[in-house]
Amino acid sequence: MKTTRRHFIKLSAAAGGALGFATRSTIVFAEEPVKPLRILILGGTGFTGPYQVRYALSRGHKVTTFNRGKTHPGELPNEVEQLIGDRNGQLDALKGRKWDVAIDNPTTLPAWVRDAAQVLKGNVQRYVFISTISVYADTSKGVDETAPLAKYEGADPYKETLEAMKASGYKTYGPLKALSEKEAEKWFPGKTLIIRPGLIVGPRDETDRFTYWPVRIDRGGEVLAPGNPGDPVQFIDARDLAEWTIRMAENRHTGIYNATGPSKPLGIGKLFDEIKGALNSNAEFTWVPANFLAQQKVEAWSDMPVWAGDELGLARTKIDRALAKGLTFRPLAETARDTLTWFRSQPHDRQSKLRAGLTPEREAEVLAAWHKEAVEKVL
Fold it and tell me: Exposure pattern of 82-119 as b/e (b: 16+ CB <10 Å)?
């Protein structure tokens, strides 16, 4: 099954003030000493989790993770207490323990929240649920946190499985996340923080949903660029998301917040220029209209990552609430360079085939077809 742009975002954005990416060295966080917290991270070994762990430790917190112990085993620092279990009914390791805050990273199914909450209720003071902007019913226009949510139309959401969700083409992903949010608020009323990220990018991203562009632009030459340079894009570095999540927990914030970036509108042309400059690339961009790409069966999100195609509302999500609570962004150049460095550190087999974007052969075919059409129009 070919990955659609909505499916793709769900498998889920040099510093310059004009871009809204703040330089980290200029950011001043809380001046008062941070009160050490006992933090439980459900997950903690995937994409954003390890960044949460390391940032929390650097700020003096005591961290416990709960997961199956199968993803990147042995990678976490020795200071971390690691509890082994499974969200599908194996929660005994959580019983009889107390934490100041629990951060729920991997939950997709409302039953996972319900089951964990039955064990943790009364034993954690606050519950942080990492959701997604895919919970919104309509993203054709930029949405804020008050927009209507997608509705689940299946039989019983508490009997849903990850396998069934995948089999449906991830059509139930957003609705199930929305129900998971409600489940968190039900069990932890007034104590829940819901964070809705957009496209999460950076080192450790196994989907290559942003990585394609640093890799491709670094290779140089003629690069197929989708749509118009002014088409908006949004994304957030996983490290910025993780660190802000920890700071929100420290400050005992609750409520709902969209979390993507940058702080000011960014066009895909400027994104490419920034990556090109950061990597000292000789890439030259050939802009190909969306209608031609559609004729060539080149799709947004999957074939042309980050670009929203004709669903530009996805890249206009409002983040004013998060900005008011201190959401910050590292320089885009840093994200581009670090992502490329990470990708180059992966095994050869991993590097040999990107999981998003066009293959070099397919890109060449589309560019050749575009140039041919341009010549025929002139003739």
Answer: bbebebeeebeebeebebbbbbbbbbbbbbbbbbbbeb
Domains located in the chain, CATH noted: 5-378 (3.40.50.720)
Q: What is the mean pLDDT of residues 197-226?
A: 98
Please, which pLDDT band fits residue 378 given cuts at 50, 70 and 90? low
Banded pLDDT at 183 (limits 50, 70, 90): very high
The pLDDT score that the predictor gives to residue 29 is 46
Pair of tokens at residue 371: 């140039």
3-state secondary structure of 76: coil
Question: What is residue 251's DSSP assignment?
Answer: T
Asked if residue 374 has pLDDT above 50, the reply is yes
- DSSP code at position 26: G
> How many residues does the structure list for the chain?
379
pLDDT of residue 224: 98
Distances (CA, A) of 127 to 59, 90, 176, 252: 19, 20, 18, 10
Q: Which amino acid appears at position 182 of this protein?
A: K
Within 10 A of 226 (CB to CB), how many other CB atoms are there? 23
Burial of 242 (0-12, 13-18, 19+ CB in 10 A): buried
6-20, 311-325, 343-357: range with lowest mean pLDDT = 6-20
- The residue type at 49: G
- Count how many Cα atoms sit within 13 Å of the Cα of residue 370 in the half-sphere of its side chain: 23
| C-alpha separations of 109 from 41, 160, 222, 300, 351 in Å | 17, 7, 43, 27, 32
State the pLDDT at residue 32.
60
